[in-house]
């Protein structure tokens, strides 16, 4: 799933390519992806892209005051095309194409989604806050307001595991399964540590690690073409998705346990005092 660094890199890429161009037309190939109907998607024809922004994991195209807001979900992606094929694409079948935006110079982009479980969501609204997922977002971890003091307020009294807290978009915007694993590994913190148990020193370390990890990932993605971002993310991860590999810090074997609707990866030596986590969904650190 694209997370904050990839969506930030996409927004930067699209500011350079799309801003200043008019929208010739929009083809909707997967009706299920379009979550709004007022204003209609046809309202974009003839308008110009004036900005591209990010809200957590949401991508926001400002098109003369209307906002095309996209959430790529687990298997969605944006593919830029310097030249959009002239031949119309037929909806249905195994075609992963969900939506195509034609710009006035012949370029444009496709929104695609692989697999059978569909989660790609596209909204056309007058204000980004009209999108429920955007309206409920927590603070952006790369924003100036995200300070150690704010993080202390967030964890205070929360009897929940820190892994789940970091993934909760209503608590902190933009961090998903992959970067929460990376942050907790760099902070040398168990993913099952209870948020309210964090000391002042823990909070300072976690805050610094969140900001540093995300900024480093954004910087690594800077200047890359849209199609290269997925590969860069994968190669830049140190523990997530690397079950069975050696920890780059200590050399221990990276392990995996189930967590919520997915799984997490961690290093026992770096994060849990050498003790493995029980592999069950409501697991707590073995004592």
Mind explaining what this structure looks like?
By secondary structure, the chain is an alpha+beta fold. It has two domains: 4-135, N-terminal domain of MutM-like DNA repair proteins; 148-271, Helicase, Ruva Protein, domain 3 (Orthogonal Bundle). Helices cover 26% and strands 21% of the residues. The strands form three sheets. A four-stranded antiparallel sheet has the order 1-6-7-5, with no helix packed on it. The chain has a four-stranded antiparallel sheet with strand order 2-3-4-8, with helices on one face. It has a two-stranded antiparallel sheet with strand order 9-10. Strand 6 and strand 7 form a beta hairpin. Helix 1 (4-17) packs parallel to helix 6 (200-221) and helix 5 packs across helix 6 (200-221). It is elongated and about 60 Å long. Pfam families: Fapy_DNA_glyco (PF01149), H2TH (PF06831), zf-FPG_IleRS (PF06827). InterPro entries: FPG_cat, FPG_N, H2TH_FPG, Ribosomal_uS13-like_H2TH, Znf_DNA_glyclase/AP_lyase, Znf_FPG/IleRS. This is Fpg/Nei family DNA glycosylase. Its cofactor is Zn(2+).
The gist of it:
The chain has 287 residues and is of the alpha+beta class. It has helices spanning 4-17, 132-135, 148-155, 162-167, 177-186, 200-221, 229-236, 268-271, and strands at 23-28, 49-55, 58-63, 66-71, 76-81, 97-103, 108-113, 121-125, 255-259, 262-266. The chain has eight helices and ten strands.
């Amino acid at each position: 799933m694209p997370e904050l660094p990839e969506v930030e890199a996409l927004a930067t890429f699209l500011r350079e390519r799309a801003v200043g161009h008019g929208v010739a037309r929009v083809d909707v190939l997967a009706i299920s992806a379009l979550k709004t109907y007022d204003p209609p998607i046809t309202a974009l024809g003839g308008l110009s892209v004036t900005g591209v922004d990010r809200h957590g994991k949401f991508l926001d195209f400002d098109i003369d005051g209307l906002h095309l807001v996209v959430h790529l979900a687990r298997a969605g992606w944006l593919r830029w095309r310097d030249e959009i094929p002239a031949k119309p694409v037929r909806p249905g079948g195994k075609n992963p194409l969900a939506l195509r935006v034609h710009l006035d110079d012949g370029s444009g982009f496709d929104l695609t989604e692989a697999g059978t479980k569909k989660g790609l969501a596209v909204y056309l609204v007058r204000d980004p806050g009209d999108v429920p997922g955007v309206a409920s977002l927590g603070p952006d971890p790369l924003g100036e307001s995200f300070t150690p003091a704010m993080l202390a307020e967030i964890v205070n009294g929360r009897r929940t595991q820190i892994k789940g807290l970091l993934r909760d978009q209503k608590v902190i915007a933009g961090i998903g399964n992959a970067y929460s694993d990376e942050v907790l590994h760099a902070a040398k913190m168990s993913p099952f540590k209870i948020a309210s148990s964090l000391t002042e020193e823990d909070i300072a370390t976690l805050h610094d690690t969140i900001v540093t990890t995300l900024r480093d990932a954004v910087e690594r993605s800077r200047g890359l073409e849209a199609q290269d971002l997925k590969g860069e993310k994968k190669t830049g991860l140190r523990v997530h998705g690397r079950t069975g590999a050696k920890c780059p810090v200590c050399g221990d074997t990276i392990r995996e346990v189930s967590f919520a609707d997915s799984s997490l990866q961690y290093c026992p030596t770096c994060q849990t005092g050498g003790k493995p986590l029980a592999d069950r969904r409501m697991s707590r650190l073995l004592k």
